[in-house]
Amino acid sequence: MMMDISSPAELLRVEQARFGDGRRQAYLTFMNEHEDVITGLSGLAVLLDEMGKTIERRKVVFSGLTAKPREAFVCHLALDNYPEFDRMEMAVETASFVYGKAWQTNPSRIMDCEPPVLPSGPERVALVAVAGYDAVCFPERHETHWICVCGRFNRIRWLTCHRCGRNREDTLAFLTPEQVVEGYGAKVDEERVRDQERLIKKARKQEIEKKKAEAERARRAENRQKALRAIGITACVILVFSLVIWGGSRLLAQTGTQAGEIAFAGAKGTFPPVDYLDPIRK
Description:
With 282 residues, this protein is an alpha+beta fold. A hairpin with a 3-residue loop joins strand 10 (140-141) and strand 11 (145-147). It contains 3 helices and 12 strands, in the order βββββββββαβββαα.
């Protein structure tokens, strides 16, 4: 993408919305890279198809903004008279601020700001792991500018990246391919050690839980044995008590029978026997 790297605002992404009545609208997210509040922007929008071929170029103007310094802001663009497109690029040409002088692009500073290509593979994995998810290329230093790991082209005198804020010297010194690969190897080793520690902790936790479960099972089994013994003792006591009661009742019954027989025998001795077969004496 062609742009002036001294631009106070940069287009980050474009989203499109289609409404039920057929209206279309685009939402352009910019980053205010200036120290002042941006109140207006203008630039040339390039509409591209899915193959990256230019469909149309249009001048767009946004006014009445209150874009705070070092923050992202969104501009709305009605697409009623725009052709269908897949992507949009826009290089800011003018910017106005709350305070200070307005900014205007300089054709002599316009350059291709497409970041160096970093193919998918081990190097990209290592770079993202070490530098962060916004990393898209290895940093480079040029005569008039330096390229940050996030892909932003910065003027050589800028000590920090105007997109992500990374320090220029640290980025160029410590995010070289050799440093990244070495750092990724150390990161992998650290992660492997952490994984081993997590596995050891997990095994210890499982062992402790297993011992607790075994102790709980043993306690429950012991409680069941105690309950069974208590039931057995209670049953024996009830049985013995029942036998004692039964034996006592039998003894009392036998004693009562014998006493009745003795009393009856005594009664028979009191009255003389009567022989009902003797003839009646006159």
